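HOLO CASE FILE
Compound: zinc ion
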Amino acid sequence: MLRNCHKCYQVFSTPGGEVCPSCQQKARDDFELVRAYLQGQPAAGIEELHRETGVPTEDILEFIRQGRLKSQSVQVHCQICRAPIPAGLACDECRKRLRRVPAGERVYSMEPSTGEKPRKL
Ligand SMILES: [Zn+2]
Ligand SMILES: [Zn+2]
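Model generated. Tokens follow.
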């Protein structure tokens, strides 16, 4: 089956993935870079992580949202009430209220802890 890569939009052949093999590899490399940097600098902020690893801030936030990475100073926020949460898209309270929202669905883009304005995707 042929489809367009979710990230680079190249056509590739896949049994079902959304991202082409080179983007998958890049995502793994990016993840390793950020993880390694956080090991040495556990309190690194999102801007520092981005500057030092070259990984886009959105991707770093995505790793944190997925619970794969933790930084002492980078927090993600509930997309509904904006309460700080350790990982994921919504706090427990909002998840309970919005049980019909499919898991992983993006409502708004996350607000980075740098105070950047939230953007609509
Ligand atoms: Zn790709
Ligand atoms: Zn909430």
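CASE NOTES: Helices lie at 21-40, 46-53, 57-65, 92-97. The first strand starts at residue 2 and ends at 4.
CLOSED: yes
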